[in-house]
Design brief:
alpha/beta
Amino acid sequence: MLTTRFAPSPTGRLHRGHAFSALTAWRAARETGGRFLLRIEDIDPTRCRPEYETAVLEDLAWLGLDRDGPVRRQSDHLSNYAGVVDDLHGRRLLYRCFRTRKNILDAIGDAPHGPVEAARPGPHPADEEASFLSEERPFAWRLSLDRARETLGERAWADLSFVEEGRGPDGEQGRIAARPEAAGDVVLARKDAGAAYHVAVTHDDALQGVTHVIRGEDLFEATHVQVLIQALMGWPTPVYRHHRLLAGADGRRYAKRDRAVTLAELRAGGLRPDALRAELGF
């Protein structure tokens, strides 16, 4: 039996692409007599809105997707994610980074060995860090790949991998070696904004017993970092199944930022849910 989840961020109304993803995860669970969970990933208070969360529930009900258990709203569990950050910090796996996005981009441009090395800026000198802290400058907590590798050991680091049952952007399938170094020392928290997406999603997948993460191929690269976090925290690595991204007649993939036609608009225009499901292959 599979346990899958649909985990939208309430930053806008759902469109056909979201419907395809939700239906794919729902069908995978139902075909095995498993569980289909709904998670609202709303840890970004600047972009998430309660009215969009309400709209998610309306759209899924219209599509006819039932779910198992209560909806998990991430904003109700920020202390759990902060605990993960504290744990990693206590094990010296994180370091404070006061560099701005511009600082990092400038460093990438100047780096003699390319962007990967520049994306691993490393800790500030102790006196510089103390000075910045006294000035109360904002900072991010970055995951040190060097410390992570040392903590896991060379053999475990080399064995980091995940199973891809779908396909990545370049056709990746099967057992795939994880490459967390491609993302550099990623930000896992900010002083004033709490834990980042990678922390919240891996925590919740482990807590909720998600066996199969089914999502769009645009999140394929994020998997490499998430596998590392799972290993560091002793959490299981789910099976991953990334699916294609739907595109409109103009060839552009459906996206909130491009004002893709929403499910609410389709509904208001008289489209029946069974017709949409058939259109999407369900």
